[in-house]
Amino acid sequence: MNWEVISSYLPLYWKAMLLTLRIGWLGILFAILIGFLVAIVRFYKVPVVSRIAGVYIEFFRNTPLLVQLFFLYFALPKIGIPMNAEFTGALGLALLGGAYMAETFRSGLESVAKIQTESAMSLGLNKSQTVLHIIFPQAFSVSVPAFVANVIFLLKETSVFSAISLMDLMFRAKDLIGLYYKTTECLVLLVFFYALILIPVSVLGDRLERRVRHAEFGD
Length: 219
Prior knowledge:
By secondary structure, the chain is an all-alpha fold. It is built from eight helices and no strands. It has one domain (3-217): MetI-like (MetI-like fold), CATH 1.10.3720.10.
């Protein structure tokens, strides 16, 4: 292990990590938005739109992100829809993540017993108040573990961005290995920087889960 090599590569990996985080969190933010809207459509069984949402979920959950990125980055320009690499990465992650988030949020919504809605209505709450104050808080607490798992999964999926020439962590590691053959040092740095991204998310997710479960059930 050559520590001088590792120290000289640190700035390059740091820059690659910032790019990975920027694209990753942008994609996850839009994935949450897409997932929430699709979950609402599926939960309330909106005619026609619900079926389209179901097709979207099945398609994106059952195709690899790498294939989706290839289609967005290489195929769409052939029909006059050019996209740069960063936008393609964020969009691909958003579409994939939206499908997973939708099922996470929908399962949370469906976990709320029907009697809760009936009880809220009997107390004089209207439909919007019932959804906002009764259904959503309970659905959120149930969805947190799967939600955090999805976020971690999507951050790890950023490792395929190198396939569309994005200089993320994986691209940087492969590039340096190919140039200088410092395989051990490059892989150690790759593991370290992915851990630097993912471990805080895991820890914060665990704390969030315990907090919302305590709010719902107490000790």
